[in-house]
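Submission sheet (multi-component)
Chains listed below:
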Amino acid sequence: MTDINATYQLLCDQARETTMLARIQQLLEWDEQTKMPKAGGPYRAEQVAYMAGLVHKKRTAPEIGEWLEQLTQSPLAADLESDTGSNLHHLRRDYNKKTKLPQSLVEQLAKACTLGQQAWIEARQADDFKKFQPNLEEIIRLKREEATALGYEKTPYDPLLDDYEPGESTENVARILSELRDALVPLVQAIAESSQRPDASLLARSYPTDAQKSFGTEAARAIGFDFNAGRLDVTAHPFMTGLGPGDVRMTTRYDEHAFSDAFFGILHETGHGLYDQGLPREHYGLPLGEDVSLGIHESQSRMWENQVGRSRAFWEHFFPQAQAAFPAALKNVAIDDFYGAINDVRPSLIRVEADEVTYNLHILIRFELEQALIEDRLQVADLPGAWNEKYEHYLGITPPSDADGVLQDVHWSAGLFGYFPTYALGNLYAAQFFAQAEGDLGDLDKQFRQGKFSPLREWLRKNIHAQGRRYTAAQLALRVTGSTLSHESLIRHLASKYGKIYGL
Amino acid sequence: MTDINATYQLLCDQARETTMLARIQQLLEWDEQTKMPKAGGPYRAEQVAYMAGLVHKKRTAPEIGEWLEQLTQSPLAADLESDTGSNLHHLRRDYNKKTKLPQSLVEQLAKACTLGQQAWIEARQADDFKKFQPNLEEIIRLKREEATALGYEKTPYDPLLDDYEPGESTENVARILSELRDALVPLVQAIAESSQRPDASLLARSYPTDAQKSFGTEAARAIGFDFNAGRLDVTAHPFMTGLGPGDVRMTTRYDEHAFSDAFFGILHETGHGLYDQGLPREHYGLPLGEDVSLGIHESQSRMWENQVGRSRAFWEHFFPQAQAAFPAALKNVAIDDFYGAINDVRPSLIRVEADEVTYNLHILIRFELEQALIEDRLQVADLPGAWNEKYEHYLGITPPSDADGVLQDVHWSAGLFGYFPTYALGNLYAAQFFAQAEGDLGDLDKQFRQGKFSPLREWLRKNIHAQGRRYTAAQLALRVTGSTLSHESLIRHLASKYGKIYGL
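Outcome: structure written.
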């Protein structure tokens, strides 16, 4: 028994050391995006690659396999919901995944994705899918090989999805998303046909970026982000990265004539940041101290961005402050016009610019297509056509070019298959959690109107953040909301909210 | 021969890898000083310690000893001024120093210095030297042990000085600095007794910090700092750190009512930064790609700060711009009043606030005292009295408290014995190099008046920066100026410049 405990300690020490090295790599990357002078690029790339190699070596060290072998049959592993059982489950799972892939495949994939991203950039600039096609074919071939090496029962998409949404199945996601689609398409059509249209152009007036920065920072602080343990910087592509307990870095970008971009971007990253700040410190560096999945992470960002930040109640509190911060743009604007503008729904070409309603259809299209690609039901040569067909079918629009169509996202060129659906899962979890929070906490709108965000934040902290990775996303949803994940809460939220705005 | 070349490659690869890891540690430290949220401190300390351990392990790996043994007698080591010979000389030297110290001594010193710095902070706050005395006694005991382990012929101060000024001897430094002292004390006295006094108070008017930042940045750019390969941030204690080829980070601090602090601080760090940006890239990560010594590094910062930045010619170019940048403070100020103000000389208590002339006496006092401490000619208990005596003797003032006297500097509490004299050596090298540059390039003042700084910068780049560590400081001075280091150029510069300002 003492031996087993000592072995468990060795395993945990190694895991914590690996996390620490991974966090150093993340600082190198954060600095590269936010602060590094341009000429520092080549050396930084060497440093990042070196640290990534070190992390990989630590994660796949043969002694981990030996320790796990001793521990898996021990009493420490018996109860999956105990601290030791949960950590061992995840550490074994990660180790097996990491060591199942032959080194040659890992290297081929890394190379194919580097070349793939270069080709994708060129293809997008030239609006010429053919420049990217052979690279994508090679990447998909390797991802299928990866799926085979990892093993699967039903579909090669399963082990890829599992990288981002552990324990989730393609079958289940496909079922939920198709139900979502069936409810969403008529709603989008009804909105598109409505004669009531908000005037979104008021968000393109002049919003000085300094004022955007302080207004956004104050909003992040108001909903609970601890700036003593985090910061906000500027990057071309916004993100959140947790560099350590007490060190959460968020980024955004400011455009004087696009109020929504930075503001809702900040709320979004703050949602991610609050999750990170709420993870259980005592387990830092071990699986129990980490987030559940990308879908659960996204549920936190989406909830603060949409359910909270795009609600009328939120702006009943913040709009007077916004008018004071941006007098030139908002002095004579009525709150309902502003509320309409930030909730303007219209079918559009670009995912990252899409509204709360149509966003999910952009994801659906990608999920259906990448599943077909990985299952060899769709050839890469036929992808642009299939893409355009689905945009016509679900959103009623046809991309005028591949650059604004199938070539718009970086994900596939970077080998990220199975990643897209987590965005929609995040929206679904957000709606389901929010409905439950409302049931538990009473009238949230009333609280938001008074500028009170701590009840919701503490509810999330207790029920979701502080759980770390003890449960899978599905288990967590069941424990917190009493139901498995479904499309119903999200559809109810969207139908009710947009029914009012668009007079449906 | 092939074997030897392969071994040399192994050694160089290891050195470059070690440098890369050390640079990652420096990024962790830079970020801690400039950007990290406060709550990130404890984890960051663990990361820095981890990386420092990794660097130490790489630097002292036994295989390095084996490689060096093979290579030392080989033809690659024969010519000390060849690339291979120079690299091998330094790598052997560093390895021997690092491996001569028993691990237990390294650990005791690390611990004593951590405790020492904590005790020093408390003692300074309480103005109570006794709180620090036992810690300093322990540190000095261990530094003497260190000197014994490293070995020395004449004085235990020699191997300590050698850490910062490789190849330099205590005897030589003592001789030069005592000659400097004998010429400096009467000059300081004459200035103190002069009836001509500039009005330095105009530098305490309102200089908005945003304008200080842009004016300082533009000056740094004008003298040649490449902001595409570096940046400038704010810290409590200004410094420069080279994070990689193409990535030089400088810091400063702004006080609205202290123009000189930030501006000359920026010029100073820019001098360090130009040196780093001028080092030979092709040798990056190896000794040949590094700076010569702290003294030579300081000569670069001091030259741009003092010989250039505090010259009248420099301000004939920049003063109109300064008046435009700070109209409230400088609109009605004559250039000669401004020039006098930035060259106000007066004996003072605090080293870091001292002027160009008296600064060297502050260093002398510390050098003489720390030499006596390490040679056991002075007991720690008697240090405050000895300190005050020397301030009275050299500068004509007696510190009213130990907090503003013997407790003002962090160095001794951090075990940095042998570091102080490099500040004065830097001033001496700066004056000697500058005199030579003037001989080679003609009337530098005339060039500065026209805003032309590239001739001096390129001269420094070619003669000093691009040489990397091929020569010792003494060899470099002899090669560049034809003379060994002496106090004469500095005294000539000071006597001439301040003779005019103070009508001596």
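Remark: Chain B has a mean pLDDT of 96.
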